[in-house]
Amino acid sequence: MNNLTLFGWNESLFQLKQTSSYSHLFHGRVSTVNKTNYEVVSENGLLSCELTGNLLFGKPLFELPCTGDWVIFQPFDEGKGIIVDILPRTRILYRRKSDTVSDKQAIASHIDKAFIVQGLDANFNPRRTERFMVQVLEENIQPILIFTKSDLKFNRQDIEDSLKHIISKVPVFFTSIYSKESIVLVRESIRPGETVVFVGSSGVGKSSLVNALCEQTVFLTSEISNATGKGRHTSTRREMVLMNGSGVLIDTPGVREFGVTVDTPEALEGIFDISGFARSCRFDNCTHTTEPGCAVKDAVDKGLLEPDVYDSYLKLRKESWNFSASEHEKRKRDKSFSKIGEEAKRIKKR
To answer: Of 25, 92, 225, 315, which has the most beta carbons under 10 Å away?
Structure first.
């Protein structure tokens, strides 16, 4: 028997279930997704579930169940079931699908905290951290910055200086799987019932960190390639595990590219510490690029704002604007198609 409160089940989710037409059936949480097959943690154990045709063919891909979703299912055989409904999501971590402008993919849902993991080796990349921060904050998920491999030689001051605009806003941990004390500090930051997702590029040590937090091998790990300094993509899917006496951990595969799905470009100013300068711009709608009297560009020229941070802000804002515009056009198109469908139904009834 599983106590689902340990997996995050609470009164709010119970109330959401009561609004479903299938509230009389069983509920559980998706722990792993294998294409159209879903492993679901229920009170009676782990089930292998599939979707009803209405769900599989009636929803866009990003609305199909993802790791962390709470679903309602009908058991039909030993260890098997059919998912008939998905409870409304909150705090979803999305990413923009590769080679698209506005198509997005749900990585995990019902997330309380996101551990943004960076390795203190050749893999360290402040720009990648900014991307994860932007996406996490967009969904009101609490970000926590985790530096792994602190047993290696590194310059802490240089690391902190490169991310000072972020470090001042979030909890930060320097960890090593060879330092029990550093792992204990991270473990203590996770409360019972909370769900934490681990994000970062391949080779930063996400799976090793999860194993250390759980004090057992729950995910296989592989060595770092001597040639590239990168991991060998051990994690190939998003998986959820329960940490003894505490919260739920979701490991994710390393990503080379993490496209943002932010549709409010203005929110980026706060993340990059630009809002304070922007308030002094001559024009209220300043884009901080070519306008005269731009306090942001002036801050860059005076050395008050790092050029790399400014360039990263402009790049992510452009992505955000493109995503927002494409999303708006898509909604307009869907609305038009809906009106055409409704009109066709009226004509048919005549």
So the answer is: 92
Euclidean distance between CA atoms 3 and 1, whole angstroms: 7
pLDDT at 291: 93
pLDDT, residue 260, reads 78
- Nearest Cα residue to 102 out of 256, 263, 268: 263
Main-chain phi, psi angles of 167, to 5 degrees: -60, -30
Q: Which CATH class is domain 265-342?
A: mainly alpha
Distance CA 94, CA 96 (A): 7
pTM, to two decimals: 0.84
Residues with Cβ within 8 Å of residue 10, at least 6 apart in sequence: 193
203 annotated to bind ligand? yes
168 in a labelled binding site: no
In whole angstroms, how far apart are CA 193 and each of 94, 187, 231, 286? Answer: 22, 13, 30, 44
Q: Is 204 assigned to a binding site? A: yes
The class of domain 93-251 in CATH terms is alpha beta
- 53 φ, ψ to 5°? -60, -35
103 among annotated binding-site residues: no
CATH number of 4-86: 2.40.50.140
Q: Rounded to whole angstroms, how far apart are CA atoms 65 and 310? A: 37
Does residue 149 have a known ligand-binding role?
yes
DSSP bridge pairs for 118: 147
- 49 annotated as a binding-site residue: no
- Whether 221 and 139 have beta carbons less than 8 Å apart is answered as no
Q: Where are the domains of the chain?
A: 4-86, 93-251, 265-342
pLDDT score at 232: 47
